[in-house]
Amino acid sequence: DSGVTQTPKHLITATGQRVTLRCSPRSGDLSVYWYQQSLDQGLQFLIQYYNGEERAKGNILERFSAQQFPDLHSELNLSSLELGDSALYFCASSPVITYNEQFFGPGTRLTVL
Amino acid sequence: DQQVKQNSPSLSVQEGRISILNCDYTNSMFDYFLWYKKYPAEGPTFLISISSIKDKNEDGRFTVFLNKSAKHLSLHIVPSQPGDSAVYFCALGSQGNLIFGKGTKLSVKP
């Protein structure tokens, strides 16, 4: 158990809908990262937050957004969902922004029908 | 263009033998190199790492080698065990951000 929790574990929804994925980092970790893993793909970095502020953006679509709250939990919002958004979404956390080891949650499997 | 490549999608090894997983990269900016292991239905878990100032780091059965001139990273598992069967990702880091390879699925047969 990495100490990072993600909810829900599974999510099934329809095209055009909007969903919110939630992540609670390890106790004391200030940095949160979101990744997408599609079929046969590696982990694609989406976005990073540090202590409530956005710090880095990767391959995140404009239909996707995220935020980190004062209690350090983070939410990833996916809107106008398309079939191709079906994937595993992982959250990871680390103590500080320059610490290279990240601790991953179990992931949320999103299925868009 | 992929910055990090794991050219072997899968690898099958006999129990007790050595498993060698490889990773190539194109950009010299990375200063930290990591290997993660992933079982089905779980998130990746950190396995071993090496900084750019070293060329080898060992932790039990796991050894990571870094060849900066060749821009090549490898993970050796000796001896391999059936419980090592998983997908292995290399991840290259700079200032806390990681770029992952697509993974190599290792199968260790009894």
Q: Topology of this protein?
A:
The complex is a heterodimer of chains A (113) and B (110).
Chain A (H helix, E strand, L loop, with lengths): L4 E3 L2 E4 L5 E6 L6 E7 L6 E7 L2 E5 L6 E5 L5 E5 L8 E8 L8 E2 L3 E5 L1
Chain B lengths: L3 E2 L4 E5 L4 E7 L6 E7 L6 E7 L4 E4 L2 E6 L4 E6 L8 E9 L2 E4 L3 E6 L1
Parallel strand pairs in B: 2-11
Antiparallel strand pairs in B: 1-3, 3-8, 4-5, 4-9, 6-7, 7-8, 9-10, 9-11
Folded structure, characterized:
The complex is a heterodimer of chains A (113) and B (110). Helix content of chain A is 0%, strand content 50%. Chain A is mostly beta strands. Helix content of chain B is 0%, strand content 57%. Chain B contains no helices and 11 strands. In chain B, strands 2, 4, 5, 9, 10 and 11 form a 6-stranded mixed β-sheet that branches. The chains are: A mainly beta (113), B mainly beta (110). At the A-B interface, strand 4, strand 5, strand 9 and strand 10 of A face strand 4, strand 5, strand 9 and strand 10 of B.
Estimated structural class of chain B: mainly beta
Helix content of chain A: under 10%
Helix content of chain B: under 10%
Number of DSSP E strands of chain A: 11
| SS summary, helix count of chain A | 0
Instruction: List low-pLDDT spans of chain B.
Output: none
Can you give the mean pLDDT of chain A? 93
Mean pLDDT of chain B: 93
Shape of chain A: globular
Question: What amount of the residues of chain B lies in strands?
Answer: over 45%
Instruction: Supply Rg of chain A.
Output: 13 Å
What's the helix-strand series of chain A? EEEEEEEEEEE
> Counting H and I runs of at least 4 residues, what is the number of helices of chain B?
0
Rg of chain B, nearest Å: 13 Å
Distance, first to last CA of chain B: 38 Å
